[in-house]
Amino acid sequence: xxxxxxxxxxxxxxxxxxxxxxxxxxxxxxxxxxxxxxxxxxxxxxxxxxxxxxxxxxxxxxxxxxxxxxxxxxxxxxxxxxxxxxxxxxxxxxxxxxxxxxxxxxxxxxxxxxxxxxxxxxxxxxxxxxxxxxxxxxxxxxxxxxxxxxxxxxxxxxxxxxxxxxxxxxxxxxxxxxxxxxxxxxxxxxxxxxxxxxxxxxxxxxxxxxxxxxxxxxxxxxxxxxxxxxxxxxxxxxxxxxxxxxxxxxxxxxxxxxxxxxxxxxxxxxxxxxxxxxxxxxxxxxxxxxxxxxxxxxxxxxxxxxxxxxxxxxxxxxxxxxxxxxxxxxxxxxxxxxxxxxxxxxxxxxxxxxxxxxxxxxxxxxxxxxxxxxxxxxxxxxxxxxxxxx
Length: 390
Ligand SMILES: Cc1cc2nc3c(=O)[nH]c(=O)nc-3n(C[C@H](O)[C@H](O)[C@H](O)COP(=O)(O)OP(=O)(O)OC[C@H]3O[C@@H](n4cnc5c(N)ncnc54)[C@H](O)[C@@H]3O)c2cc1C
Description:
The protein is α+β, with helices and mostly antiparallel strands. The protein folds into two domains: 6-64 and 112-183 and 274-350, FAD/NAD(P)-binding domain, CATH 3.50.50.60; 78-110 and 187-272, D-Amino Acid Oxidase, subunit A, domain 2 (D-Amino Acid Oxidase, Chain A, domain 2, 2-Layer Sandwich), CATH 3.30.9.10. The chain has helices at residues 13-24, 59-67, 71-75, 99-102, 113-126, 172-176, 233-241, 244-254, 303-318, 327-356, 360-375, 377-387; strands spanning 6-9, 30-33, 54-58, 78-81, 83-88, 94-98, 108-112, 130-133, 138-144, 147-152, 157-160, 163-165, 181-197, 204-209, 214-220, 224-232, 262-265, 269-278, 282-283, 286-288, 294-295. The radius of gyration is 21 Å and the shape is globular. It starts with 5 loop residues before the first strand and ends with a helix. The structure holds flavin-adenine dinucleotide.
């Protein structure tokens, strides 16, 4: 067990989850630095991570939350995904993945980010081994023998054998560490909102490929869907400006015929789809995680689920280590995670592109892809298992 604390910069989904996992896997003290105020347990937080969005949690992520003793609290406010219905507007080619076919209770579950934040941050505040510094931020780092000296805006100075950058896609910590990142601006935005329904969704999540980009409808408690509607920025400008009746009519026309009727839409918000990839994830005594390491297209709801698999591996590797910042230890972690990260990052980049191409040959092959997925249970099952994070 190390004497100096491990320091995480960024108290969003990745940073909060990592602090808990590090403690679970033997870390002594962890300091979490977050630039927004974290006001729990009085009120649910509203930070860039724990905002109005919802997150589809894979079965693998739910198992990690169970391991942290938080699964029950999370499940108080989730809707289970029993079936995923993938289709393309006005074309042949539809596939369904179901929990029944996979022999599991559910493929995953959808949680509102504010509730996820409430549960994760509540657990952080209950743990005496986690010191939360919020609102506070990093003002400088200095490389020392055996680690980093970290200066905070509050005037505090920390010494750590392992500095963890979890401060999002525009990570200042990553820059302080001298790690560059590649950005791929898709030119698209995601519009998100909650939708109320005339009838129950029966635990069905819809993934619909439209000409402008993919649309996802994720089941939420209380007969609602969480909407993720992606398209070119000018198109999203129009969707944002439409009145409630018009936007609901347009959305309904994009939905499969058997989807429930949409009756209302909550506040609409938009997120630019800029895919970021750090050029390195580990250097001596530092590691980059979450959106700071890889920001994915939200098409298949994989960003946080992939991150949780990274964080679990990292916590298992360094949590109880005497030398958590040792480069060969960190490299072993990075190597372990390389394949999964590459596969998910490529798929989340490739799938929306493939479905956007208009040439008839492509249109045909992607229909065939969906049909093949539907006809070949083994292929579909492999796809479902990866999406479930198993
Ligand atoms: C529309 C949309 C839908 C999504 N849906 C899903 C889904 O269904 N399933 C899924 O698995 N993933 C989904 N994702 C991906 C998921 O949201 C990300 O994986 C997740 O937000 C990553 O969290 P993070 O903590 O790394 O980064 P962020 O959420 O960006 O959090 C970074 C944190 O660091 C803090 N910070 C920033 N700078 C500093 C600083 N200098 N000092 C201290 N703190 C700082 C910020 O305030 C923030 O709290 C979706 C993403 C989008 C955009």
